[in-house]
Design brief:
The structure is a homodimer.
Chain A (H helix, E strand, L loop, with lengths): L2 E6 L7 H16 L3 E6 L5 H12 L5 H25 L4 E4 L6 E3 L8 E4 L2 H8 L3 E5 L2 E3 L5 E3 L4 H13 L3 E6 L20 E3 H9 L7 H10 L3 E5 L8 E4 L12 E17 L4 H11 L4 E6 L7 E8 L4 H10 L1 H4 L3 E14 L9 H11 L6 E5 L2 E7 L3 H11 L6
Parallel strand pairs in A: 1-2, 1-9, 2-6, 3-6, 9-11, 10-12
Antiparallel strand pairs in A: 4-5, 7-8, 11-12, 13-15, 13-16, 14-15, 16-18, 17-18
Helix pairs in contact in A: 1-3, 2-3, 5-7, 6-7, 11-12
């Protein structure tokens, strides 16, 4: 007998028929003798509707009230799934964030889970009752509902699995696993049998939408074996997230991620002197803008230089505003920006052992006539910023070059 | 400065524009210097949608999960109204049942409020913050969400007013007060300036849909001055619920109520002996069927008699089932039922001082050729059961006969 956590996203619980199907998948695990906790998202479209209403009433709404409104979506699904399970003879009850409780930080709208008390759920699991956990939500220290940010139900599921010391956390979604890259733009993309936590973390944070980044962090930290598999074809193999040591064949590159949510800002002829970075990035941090890639040219005359950095496209206007408000303190000649850029990344733990991996990337892109605007690297990934119109071409060329295409 | 509670029903908060309008009504009271708590229902149609989903998944659903699902409706409205209030500069926060807390009985789906702790809300009200309370919901002793039954937001509002010792509880709805009878069938119905708690209690329990019965009981018990007024024309006069002593002119009849949710069951030739009532009504009570009017004929031979009683139409099948399962214990010859009946009632505290009020009712119905099937009376009301097809005719004739028509 194992203890397992199952997670179902919005498309998996989009209507009553799908909720019944999810109930049958849960029953299958119960019939196998497992203790089961299920984490659910809101029905597809529900969160967008609730977010839309809140924004329409006030673009600058109180994040605490936003949380009250949107958390209702997962509450509804949790109750409905508990009813659907009872209807097929499976003992079940719903658990809301405040009932467990799932304690989070006070950053309403994008809270972080701080602790989950497994005591009450464990008692019921031991009695053979399925725990249906409303994902995405918790309770902050002010005794108010908090939510974890979009995709947060993945994080709820993995955190519940860690708290329950579950043997496995199965993330059911509308694809049957993690792919070498987005199959919508590369039909030859292959499903990965296994992927190392570190690689998945880079994939998620560099644009792969299959798991929320924070959920991978928690899985890695608590060594929760996570499987990604399809709700609609649960016998397909799926992908297992595991330790690096569990992966035998380490190719140089495991996967290719891309993100269109990028914008580039260049400040020309800023003073080439200590402290200038602080005058630029301080105001951006104060404005809540996350800066990603940064490149500073070598100065020609030792006095003035150019600086380029990237931000999320949705934060471009806010970033430019913060820069222009601090124009005199920074002392640049002019500022230009480009919202038509994208980031393409190659990821793989094998990179550590294979020199020349980055060089292949630069050569392939050059052969296709794609100009690299900014480069950033870490031990297991290389990211480049290119014009957005070349994204598909670049990803397909790299996918072939690193021998990821399906045979 | 007064402390007031305002309550808005589902049609008053049916969409974002109406929620904004409600926010403006709340702001008006805040601008007058009042401390304000607002109780809200789910957006019109939302509760029906959630109830429908739950029933479709399982007709015999767990009432605790039903409560989890449907309570989400009021949660959403409470958050949205708090956002709408902040957007027009009114400090506000939402309060869910479990946060206040509103403690209720464990009868999930139709729980009764047992206590409301006013401490936290009073602190915030004193700071000038509007309390937006999710109606219809509380928390039971099992730490799970409970709901109060349909129309329960009225009860939430009056109970919050009692707990806060509010100076007034204003129930905003889609009509501008309590009428002498349903204006949809009697165009000459008049709005009542005042109505005694006792009369309102009878009106509500005999079919007038303007307030939930339980809310009137609480208002009467705690002497909460309740006003019923229109959301869409809040300058119209409304109706004040008050003590009997505050009503100067006591007409014999104040109002006429009717209910189509009636069915009649007759057991023929049951033993005319002590204990037979228990053999009939015991099984009905066990089946959760509420029996309303009861009439037993004088037996002709001293040994056998007929018994007729009424139940809610939706409970007819269940009632017949319970009777038939106990056929041998009861010992009737046959059982007949009629679902095409309705109850018409006249209500008025003036009845106590005016003899002959019931006689007028019987005469008027007789003149119209309407047969009275069952009669039940109390100190301040007379109810009769008639064929449903005569309801409008009966109500209009009685409305004229008791001089309730608008001049």
């Amino acid at each position: 007998m194992s203890k397992i956590v199952m997670k179902f996203g919005g498309t998996s619980v989009a209507d009553l028929d799908r909720i019944r199907h999810v109930a049958s998948l849960v029953k299958r695990e119960v019939d196998r003798g497992h203790q089961v906790a299920v984490t659910v998202s809101a029905m597809a479209g529900e969160t967008n509707k609730l977010v839309g209403w809140t924004r329409e009433l006030s673009p600058l709404h109180d994040a605490r009230e936003y949380d009250v409104v949107v958390a209702a979506g997962e509450q509804i699904t949790a109750g409905l799934l508990a009813v659907a399970l009872s209807a097929i003879g499976v003992s079940a009850r719903s658990w809301l964030g405040w009932q467990i409780p799932v304690r989070t930080s006070a950053m309403h709208g994008s809270a972080r889970i701080e602790s989950i008390d497994p005591t009450l759920m464990n008692e019921r699991l031991a009695q053979g009752q399925v725990a249906v956990v409303a994902g995405f939500q918790g309770i902050a220290s002010d005794n108010r509902i908090s939510t974890l940010g979009r995709g947060g139900s993945d994080t709820s599921a993995v955190a519940v699995a860690a708290a329950l010391q579950a043997d496995r956390c199965d993330i059911y979604t509308d694809v049957d696993g993690v792919y070498t890259t987005d199959p919508r733009i590369v039909p030859k993309a292959r499903r990965l049998e296994k992927i190392a936590f570190e690689e998945m973390l880079e994939m998620a944070s560099l644009g792969a939408k299959v798991l929320q980044t924070r959920s991978v962090e928690i899985a890695m930290l608590y060594r929760v074996p996570v499987r990604v598999l399809s709700t609609f074809d649960s016998d397909a193999g799926g992908t297992l997230l595991c330790d690096e040591e569990d992966i035998v064949e380490k190719k140089p590159v495991t996967g290719i991620a891309y993100s269109r949510d990028e914008a580039k800002i260049t400040l020309r002829r800023i003073p080439d002197q200590p402290g200038v970075a602080a005058t630029i990035f301080g105001p951006l941090a104060d404005a809540g803008v996350n800066v990603d890639m940064i490149v500073q040219n070598v100065s020609e005359d030792g006095r003035k230089t150019d600086l380029t950095f990237t931000v999320s496209r949705s934060e471009l206007a806010r970033a430019l505003d913060a820069i222009e408000k601090n124009a005199s303190a920074i002392g640049y000649k002019d500022v230009t920006s480009d919202g038509d850029v994208a980031k393409v990344s190659i990821i793989g733990i094998g990179m550590r052992a294979h020199p020349g991996v980055a060089q292949t990337m630069f050569r392939v892109l050059s052969e296709k006539g794609i100009n690299i605007q900014v480069i950033s690297t870490s031990e297991i990934k290389v990211s480049v910023l290119i014009a957005e119109e070349y994204v598909e071409l670049a990803v397909r060329a790299l996918h072939s070059a690193y021998e990821l295409d399906e045979a």
